[in-house]
């Protein structure tokens, strides 16, 4: 069996060829029979997403790579199975829609939306053990592997199947909500503007909404109607960390891009539209890169202070040998204090090569800016997040490249996990509503404010 884009040059690929490579962050399940049973169940279950949707997203990402659209990707650091619930899903969809409305208005470009949703259940951890209330326990690795509760820290293969069901139930509700008009541009004020209490932010948002309403009524008057006004696309994504889950959902399916006269089958990962390789698992000769080079989905790769410039081109050549524009999104995450010294060389390595204008450059201003404050609470400063984003925008402009998107950890709820923003949250406020089980997320106000700051960059 060979993969879809290997051109006969790279070694044979198969959905399980990653198993012969060294691997990081890989769980050792003690009960192999139970693991086999779960994998068998996953093998039988239908795809969660369809190749047509995957191909559609790749076409949108090609537009992003070429500077014609902007990519907004966001959601929780770690989704819990408990987040598979109507209000949690709706508030996240609404926030992503509100932010994209602001970005459309600001950047004057179409916005492609991807949720870190419906499958973001596995987390890389820096240590296999952690101390909880004085007890040494196996670290919480995400709901797909073990439970957060101290009594549920053993790896449980049954969670693989539960992850599938929570992922499909979440995506089912996303589809239902979108199809039922949650995103209808004719009623943008129903998108939950009530929670924006800051009068300055609210006035700015109303200005954007009024602008869109005026445009909409103008289109209506001149008779320009389109289904596009009544619904939007929201694609799903997660870190492709747990290959025991990704492999059985990898399917050889009809390739919608092949002509009817010459039908072709291609491998797709059907667990999400978009998957990314994390900062800890992108080693060239390791299992994750081996697995990801064989699937046709658009892919992200996290790029940070530990990414050697020379690895970038090697990764692109391995993951995208045919140089499809939009296939690879480079998700940069250096930290506000490092981005200026590291990003320019990474941009030049790619943009001066045969991969020029093929990648989507996306800024993740979250993961390089995590810090601990008193009591060991993990937080991020809004000012650092904005600073990395602002520097990234400026550097791309100077280098003649295009910053095509942002990748954010956010939630539609009023959490108090990141410091600063227009509410001026300080260290004492962190304990008010800190509910993340993993990294600190932007709350709805902070996320919307960041969207306005990006919009301001484009409008000024
Ligand atoms: C993440 O996106 O949650 C994450 C762990 O990021 P990174 O791989 O960049 O550290
Ligand atoms: Mn995270």
From TrEMBL:
One matching Pfam family: DAHP_synth_2
Enzyme class: transferase
InterPro entries xrefs: Aldolase_TIM (IPR013785), DAHP_synth_2 (IPR002480)
EC number: 2.5.1.54
Residues that, per the record, bind phosphoenolpyruvate: 116, 302, 333
BP GO terms, sorted: amino acid biosynthetic process; aromatic amino acid family biosynthetic process
A GO term, aspect molecular function: 3-deoxy-7-phosphoheptulonate synthase activity
Pathway in which this enzyme or protein is active: Metabolic intermediate biosynthesis; chorismate biosynthesis; chorismate from D-erythrose 4-phosphate and phosphoenolpyruvate: step 1/7
Location of the region described as Disordered in the Swiss-Prot/TrEMBL record: 1-22
Cofactor needs: Mn(2+); Co(2+); Cd(2+)
Catalytic reaction(s) noted: D-erythrose 4-phosphate + phosphoenolpyruvate + H2O = 7-phospho-2-dehydro-3-deoxy-D-arabino-heptonate + phosphate
Record: residues binding Mn(2+): 77, 367, 409, 439
Cofactor notes: Binds 1 divalent cation per subunit. The enzyme is active with manganese, cobalt or cadmium ions.
UniProt entry keywords in alphabetical sequence: Amino-acid biosynthesis, Aromatic amino acid biosynthesis, Cadmium, Cobalt, Manganese, Transferase
Similarity comment: family membership: Belongs to the class-II DAHP synthase family.
Protein name, as recorded: Phospho-2-dehydro-3-deoxyheptonate aldolase
